[in-house]
Design goal:
- With 191 residues, this protein is mainly β.
- It has a single domain, classed as Lipoprotein localisation LolA/LolB/LppX (outer membrane lipoprotein receptor (LolB), chain A, Clam).
- It is built from three helices and eleven strands, in the order ααβββαββββββββ.
- Strands 1, 2, 3, 4, 5, 6, 7, 8, 9, 10 and 11 form an eleven-stranded antiparallel sheet that branches.
- The longest helix has 11 residues.
- The chain is globular.
Amino acid sequence: MIALLASLFIATNATPAELVASCRTMIPADVELDGRIILRNRKGFSQAEYQYTLARRNGETDLSILDGSGAEVPFEKEGRILGTDVTWSDITLDYLWWEDFSFDAEREAESVHGQNCAVIVMKKGDRTVRVWVDRKTGALMQAEELVGDSPVRRLWGTRIKKFGDRWMANVMEVETIGSGHRTKITVEEMK
């Protein structure tokens, strides 16, 4: 019981570096994920659907996207992918490896889905992402891309699943604020 309380105390008082490190450890270093990217209108009807495979090996990440016929679709790493709300950063979570981060002092102890979170602002060049990290588990709960101080896109997990011995979000939603649509990212298989 004392060990459990000590671990909760440490997690509650974790530094931004400890929380970011915890998020990083939850993402497998060498992995292949297969899933779908589904663009939906505000009523939830599918407007476009793609299959994807994300492979991360030796620090390198590769993403391939297939259309409904199984043909590979070219896309740019900058901006939204194929008119969906999803970007390269959403699907790879690359901002978790940015080195410039600190607590967001104005958003201390906010909650996401009832979980007490630390809010961390991450920066790289002219890009800024704000992330919510569960203080108890160290899991990434939500992320927002900012322009100035205003959010322009938001990502959050809606479902988790156990793949082998690892729990991870297998359904995430991404929304471009004010667009009238959302994109669902599913993880159907992890190898």
